[in-house]
Amino acid sequence: METWSALLALIVLVADVVAIVQVWRTRIEVGRKVIWSLVIVLLPVVGLIMWFIAAGHFAKVRL
């Protein structure tokens, strides 16, 4: 069971790094980039889900 926890943690870490890179590649203001990066770092799973919803295909407004 410990192996699965470590694997899940690694997957979340990689997904968070990818999300932060995507945040910094967008054309939004630097202040918003910093805020999104902090949300993703401080709340890894929730921040990742929030970014996916805000910047994904289901977003009403493009970031």
Describe the overall structure.
There is one protein chain. The chain is an all-alpha fold. Helix content is 78%, strand content 0%. The chain has one domain (2-55). It has helices at residues 2-25, 30-42, 44-55. Helix 1 (2-25) packs antiparallel against helix 2 (30-42) and helix 2 (30-42) crosses helix 3 (44-55). The radius of gyration is 13 Å and the shape is elongated.
List the keywords.
elongated; mainly alpha; 0% strand; 63 residues
H-E string: HHH
Distance between the termini: 39 Å
Task: Give the number of DSSP strands.
Answer: 0
Question: What general form does the structure show?
Answer: elongated
Radius of gyration: 13 Å
Strand content: under 5%
Set out the fold topology.
Blueprint: H1 2-25, H2 30-42, H3 44-55
Helix pairs in contact: 1-2, 1-3, 2-3
Question: Short description, anyone?
Answer:
78% of the residues lie in helices and 0% in strands. It is mainly alpha-helical and 63 residues long.
